[in-house]
Structure formats: structure tokens, C-alpha cells
Amino acid sequence: MHTYHDCIPCFLKQALSAARLATSDPAVHEHVLRQVLIDTAAMSFDQPPPFMGQRIHQIIREATGSADPYNSVKKKYNQLGMSLYPDLKKTIGQSRNPLETAIRLSIAGNIIDLGAAESVDEAEVFSVIEQSLTQHLEGDIGAFQHAMAKAENILFLGDNAGEIVFDRLFIETLQQDHITYVVRGGPVINDATRSDAEFIGMTELVDVMDNGTDAPGTLLDQCSEPFKEAFYDADLVIAKGQGNFESLSDADQHIFFIFKVKCPVIAAHTGCPTGSMVIHEKH
Predict the structure, then answer these.
(1) Are 241 and 160 a contacting pair, CB within 8 Å?
(2) Which of 47, 79, 156, 218 could form a disulfide with 51 if both were Cys (CB 3.0 to 4.6 A apart)?
(3) What is the pTM of this model?
């Protein structure tokens, strides 16, 4: 997926929000915005949005000296997810279709995305969880379940801290010995890294690897060779979140993208209204 003109205001909004999170110094905020404007003007719009997202957060880290401005925020959402875990586990266990319920909750967890919103409060998370159990799913959940049952080697690309707890619940409903979970190779926004996977117990459940890059998506030309080998060797790739959809929608692999539609650009690109829960298959 290429970068749309409507992505540009979002780049600036995200840059200012992240800069303010990292420091209260208005001079740094101005520097970040000016540098983002320069880099945006120079970028090729053939690149997916996570390409610029990566650069924005590199600029912020360089300007502030903070290696992970979202560290405390990620811990907050991981703790929130773990506090919800027992009740969500019970909800899945009591469901007539535990796997579908687990898939729905995994998609609901994708609301914890600070690249698409400046903040996500607990009330919104609770509301999305409740809605997810009955909301219409865009896509073929039957085809998704069939593909998962048939695959002998699944690569699961995670997205955000906090959301990773919902992915754990989903993975716990599957045969786990043939699943590898993937996190980012370095801090960017509130995306999950290995420390988040360790905190919520994912590393005790399945093999966890990082993709070797700090982009808020999966830019294959930047990813590590071990990740690319795992990606192309997988029978099936499950990719969570808009960033993975934006960066892998043209990849040569069998992928199921599962995410919440959180912006008008993705709504127009997919034909699914903002707020939709999407299961999008790509062969």
C-alpha cells in the first residue's frame, strides 16, 4: 500500500503528539515538526505509511535522547491487558465457539494503537471488547479458521503492547507448537517488543522472534534475514494491525490481516467503514 495525501496531516499530528510525550520543551517540538516536514517532502509516496512512521520516531529519539518515549505507556497497557486476562479467558471458555470468540477479542485488542490515536482510555477498551463479541466481521472467518487448522507452520505478526495479551488468549485456543510470534526489533510508538512478550507470558507459550527493524509495520526490505526466512517459509501468516496491513498488502505470501479500521484512508482502501473489524485474506 502506498502513502496517500491524507496520510500527511496524520504524520504531523503523530509527530507532535509523540514529541510532547517525550519532552515538554517547545523548541524540541518545533525541531521535530520541521524535520518531519522536510523528510515528508522528500519521501516517495510509493512507500507505505510505516516508512515515514519509522522516520518520525527516529527523529524524536534523536532530538530527545529518549530511547523509548512510550515505555511507561506500554507498561500501563500491558498491565491493563493482564488485569483483563482472567475474565476474558473465562469468556472464551464459556463461549459456544471459543476460537471465534478468541479471534474477535484479538481484533478488539487492536484498538490499543497510539499511532492512530493520541490516547486510548480504559472505557474505550472496555466498550470495544463488549462490541467485538457481536459486531459484524468484515471478511470470511470460516476461511480463516480453515486455513489455521490446515497450516503446519504459522507466523503471527503482533502489533501493540497491551494488545499482545489479547493475542495470547487467541493463541492459547490453537495448537501452539507450530506458531511463532513476531514483535518489533526496536521501540517505536507503543508497538510490542520482546520485553512486552516476556512481561505478558508470550515467551513461555510459543517461540518469539523480532523482525529486526523499528518500523511500525513490517518493511520487508529492512527486516532481518532470519525473519524473512521465517516469513517466506510459513504456511500461513497472521498479521495484526493497520501498520502490518499497510506494509505487507502487496507481499508475495498467504496472509490473513486482522485489525480494526481506525482511519478514513484504510476505510477507503479496504471498502470497510471506520470502526470495522476486518479479516482480510491475501494469497
Answers:
(1) yes
(2) 47
(3) 0.96
Residues whose CB is less than 8 angstroms from the CB of residue 162 and which lie 6 or more positions away in sequence, other chains included = 74, 76, 77, 78, 80, 81, 109, 112, 190
Please give the grid coordinates belonging to residue 95: 463461549
CA distances for 135 relative to 27, 90, 101, 103, 124, angstroms: 45, 20, 11, 12, 15
Q: For residue 117, what pLDDT is reported?
A: 77
Q: Which residues pair with 209 in a beta bridge?
A: 182
Between the two ends of the chain, the Cα-to-Cα distance in Å is: 15
**Residue 207, CA distances (Å) to 102, 155, 198, 230 in order:** 20, 10, 11, 12
E strand or H helix that includes residue 101: helix 98-108
Phi, psi (5° rounding) for residue 267? -60, -45
At 175, is the pLDDT very low, low, confident or very high (cuts 50, 70, 90)?
confident
DSSP letter, residue 3: P
